[in-house]
Amino acid sequence: MNKNKYFPYLLLAVAALWLIATGGDRQARFSGPTTKSFSVGSTYGARTTVSMTIKEQGCVWAQATWPTSSTAKTLALILNGPGSKSAYQRKDGKSGVVLYYGITESDAKKGTDWAINIANFGGGTAKGQITIEYPPTQVPCDLKALASKTKGQIDLSWIYTGKPFKGSFLIERSADNKVWNVVSKCTMSAPASSKTALSSYSCVDSGLSSNKTYYYRACSITSGSKCDPKKYTTPTMSVKVP
């Protein structure tokens, strides 16, 4: 009897047992915006994996939501990709948690197989939905807030890889991460081309108090004059003014 011919079946059985034990689930691969259901068990590290095909640089935006009645109060969104054993990005939080990552040209050259894991490290169970956009609709990407060489000044930049839309990009600043104000000199029009855009933006926030920490976030709007943190807004960044 050739025992080797049974080896592949043994591997499949082990994989199946692992998924059952951890509550794991692997979704079909996709490329582009999608919303999928997920379910995670109570075992530490239980997860649902959503596989993606990404062929070029751009932004990945993902948000997981689940009922507040779920016994799992917090979950982790983990972005894994080619060329790295470590996660490219991880965000932990309550329902509504957002993961956001700018895939560089160098990242994209490493391969096309990417995945987002919805993982449970805090106990309880949860069933919900994850929305993933690549490139994200109207979301600015790769926001950078860097201390300038000039005193009292912060250099800001971001890119946009989504489709053109009629609206603007805003930068908001906060001294306490609670009350936000628009940096007027950083308000810029969204790309109006009929083709998918890859646009770079930059501006300077000056006249700031030296040695003080400020918080920044970027967003896109089609109406109104302020960012909505639940819609088309980047995660917050903090930086100390020179």
Describe what is shown at a glance.
This protein has 242 residues and is mostly beta strands.
Describe this structure in words.
With 242 residues, the chain is mainly β. It is 8% helix and 45% strand. The chain is built from 2 helices and 17 strands. It has helices at 7-22, 105-108, and strands at residues 25-30, 34-40, 46-53, 58-65, 75-80, 89-93, 97-103, 113-120, 126-133, 141-147, 154-160, 168-174, 181-182, 188-189, 199-205, 213-221, 237-240. Strands 1-3-8-5-6 form a 5-stranded mixed β-sheet. Strands 12, 13, 14, 16 and 17 form a 5-stranded antiparallel β-sheet that branches. Strands 2-9-4-7 form a 4-stranded antiparallel β-sheet. A hairpin with a 6-residue loop joins strand 10 and strand 11 (154-160).
